[in-house]
Design brief:
CATH class of one domain: Alpha Beta
Number of strands: 15
Number of helices: 18
Strand order of the largest sheet: 4-5-6-7-8-9-10-11-12-13-14-15
CATH architecture of one domain: Alpha-Beta Horseshoe
Largest sheet: 12 strands, parallel
Distance between the termini: 19 Å
Helix content: 25-40%
Structural class: alpha/beta
Strand content: 15-25%
């Protein structure tokens, strides 16, 4: 047996007995979500920690993802110790090489005292090439005390710390780091300037932490990494303004004393000179190698809409290598920048737009319909926006994307139903589509069922899967259709749309 994925929700000891017999494992994933009340406490396992001696010399990937339970440290220490390279077998000629093990290690809600962290050997961490770390004070002190970790290529930090933790020391101790992801990092401080001085060649960077306790200047700090290919930042990165020295190049002093003043400034109403001063322009100018860009993923970070310099997104047209773009929860008032992006980024293959603009109105549907015909290489399109109906212009524009294979449109709130005739016309005329998922709030159930039946099991298009749903029903509840009729490849693609984390880091 080479791969085990286990959901453990009662007693870990029974699973550990089974695991002791699996000597050829290469992948081990242990999860135990929503099982806190069934889990045995960690103290009950400490007496028998010596007998858990595992032999896993071929283990390459380890994920211990237990959000609601406590995984006993003796078990974890035994698994990691059993994964160490066996020198005796190497001498016997088995060809086992002492290499860096490809691991993802995740601790979430680890409440064990720091003393138990000593059971995990320093040699284990020194061999890791991919470290997925649920940040706690105990694990932070353990990693911090190891010194230089030359084998680590990818580092992901998840979770909230009880006190403010400076992650700079851990990051800079990995001289060969290529990928850094700080995901939902509360109470985490990170000095971007020091990270750049030590690691100027980082290729993948994701910073999703509180701006006050995280990077003080996200955009200006990111702009220093000229070799970036993957970048993910929160909306607050669009608030920053360039320094005073750079302002003088663009800024013009204008006297507005005689102009009409409004009691409340409208979102997006600002002079073009001020927009050019947005600090995120430095990213577009200094990071030309970016292939994937995501802005606005972390919903826990709240930004003032009046301060977001979203108009600078039109300068994204300078990223000629851009193939994947996600924009989420950006308070725009017009979609004109979408036209500029699609004209300049001719290689765009993946586009996801989610909750842009005010919640009560879709303000960019006309511009999106005008921009889509320029996307000649677009393969995946997903739009999640309220009040998109009837959406006729968008459906007609999608027909002009010749390479499009997967299309998803979700409108959970609307004043009118989506145009079902336009959807049907799109599916009939665009022969390249293999997956269509439409979720509307006022689309009647009868129309949904009728349309899905029409395109079910077509002999001329056997790969085509169509799902038209009403928001009042479960989006994945096919009571009138056979669930097994959906090929796994399409379902996995739909999951990929909804999960950016594995899209960003999992290259298997």
């Amino acid at each position: 047996m080479r791969s085990v994925r286990a959901l453990v929700n009662f007693n870990f000891a029974h699973f550990m007995v089974f695991l002791m017999r699996c000597h050829a494992l290469q992948t081990l994933i242990i999860t135990g979500h929503h099982s806190r009340r069934f889990c045995v406490s960690a103290s009950s396992h400490s007496e028998n920690q010596d007998k858990w001696n595992f032999r896993l010399p071929y283990l390459e990937k380890l994920v211990v993802d237990l959000e609601d339970v406590m995984f006993p440290i003796p078990y974890l220490g035994g698994i990691l110790s059993g994964a160490k390279c066996d020198k005796s077998e190497e001498k016997e000629g088995n060809g086992k090489k002492d290499k860096a093990v490809d691991w993802k290690i995740c601790w979430i809600n680890n409440r064990h005292p720091a003393a138990n962290m000593e059971l995990i050997s320093d040699e284990i961490f020194s061999k890791c090439s991919r470290l997925y770390l649920g940040l706690t004070l105990d694990s932070f002190e353990k990693i911090k005390g190891l010194g230089v970790l030359p084998n680590i290529r990818e580092l992901m930090v998840v979770g909230a710390a009880a006190v403010t933790i400076n992650l700079t020391t851990i990051v800079t101790s990995c001289p060969n780091l290529q990928s850094l992801n700080v995901l939902f990092g509360l109470n985490i401080a990170l000095d971007i300037t020091k990270v750049y001085e030590k690691l100027p060649d980082i290729e993948r960077l994701s910073l999703h932490c509180q701006p006050l306790q995280g990077p003080p200047k996200i955009a200006s700090g990111v702009a220093q990494f000229h070799n970036l290919t993957h970048l993910s930042v929160p909306v607050c990165a669009l608030i920053e303004i360039r320094s005073k020295e750079k302002r003088q190049v663009f800024e013009e002093e204008v006297d507005y004393t005689d102009c009409i003043s409004f009691k409340r400034r409208r979102v997006g109403s600002r002079e073009s000179a001020v927009v050019e001063l947005a600090a995120f322009n430095e990213v577009f100018e200094n990071c030309p190698k970016i292939e994937m860009l995501q802005i606005g993923f972390n919903q826990e970070i709240s930004c003032s809409p009046l301060k977001v310099q979203w108009e600078c997104l039109s300068n994204m047209k300078k990223l000629e290598n851009l193939t994947r773009l996600t924009l989420d929860s950006i308070p725009i008032t017009s979609g004109g920048f979408l036209i500029e992006i699609t004209k300049g980024c001719s290689r765009l293959e993946f586009l996801r737009l989610k909750r842009l603009g005010p919640s009560g109105k879709c303000v960019y549907s006309a511009q999106l319909a005008e921009a889509l015909p320029f996307c000649k290489n677009l393969v995946h399109l997903r739009v999640e926006q309220n009040y998109l109906a009837p959406g006729t212009a968008i459906f007609k524009a999608v027909e002009e994307c010749p390479k499009l294979k997967r299309f998803a449109l979700l409108s959970e709130r609307d004043m009118m139903p989506l145009n079902v005739d336009a959807i049907e016309h799109l599916i009939q005329n665009h022969l390249g589509l293999i997956f269509v998922f439409i979720l509307g709030s006022l689309v009647t159930r009868d129309k949904c069922i009728k349309l899905m039946r029409k395109f079910k099991n077509l002999e001329s298009r056997p790969a085509l899967v169509v799902r038209i749903k009403n928001v009042l029903r479960d989006a994945f509840d096919d009571k009138n259709q056979d669930n097994h009729s959906t090929p796994a490849c399409h379902f996995n693609e739909m999951v990929m749309f909804r999960s950016w984390m594995y899209e960003f880091y999992d290259t298997d």
